[in-house]
Amino acid sequence: MKFINQHLVNSSDDSRGRPRLQSVGSSHAWADDKFKLVISSEIIKEIIKTLMNFKIKLPFDEILLWLSIFLWKAELVEPEERVDVVKDDPDDNKFIEAAIVENADYI
Q: Considering Cα of 26, then 30, then 31, then 34, what sign does the dihedral take?
């Protein structure tokens, strides 16, 4: 089963102040390899932009941590087919395009 998820996993610090993943909802299943996260370079750009623009500024090393988690756990695809199906927010078509490449069951 493949899955595309726009929601980030929460992070927290362990007793030594090191970042660690804290599973929340579908992210727990992702961490347990119950489904595959499919992303593209366009999705990665949006993740970085979102992380850099939080109201509470994240340290750059935490942004790099999140990026490395996505690159480590996700399957990177580069869609060749462009679609125009998300009328309310056309920028979100990138999620549909990645789903098409991997014949995803869920978005």
A: positive
Residues 6+ apart with CB under 8 A from 87: none
SS3 call for 73: helix
Domain assignment present for residue 1? The answer is: no
The answer to whether residue 15 sits within a structural domain is: no
- Total domain count, the chain: 1
| Cβ atoms 106, 2 nearer than 8 A | yes
Please give the residue that has the higher pLDDT: either 37 or 1: 37
Does 9 reside within a domain?
no
Does this model's pTM top 0.85? no
The Cα 75–Cα 72 span in angstroms is 8
Q: Is the pLDDT of residue 24 over 80?
A: no
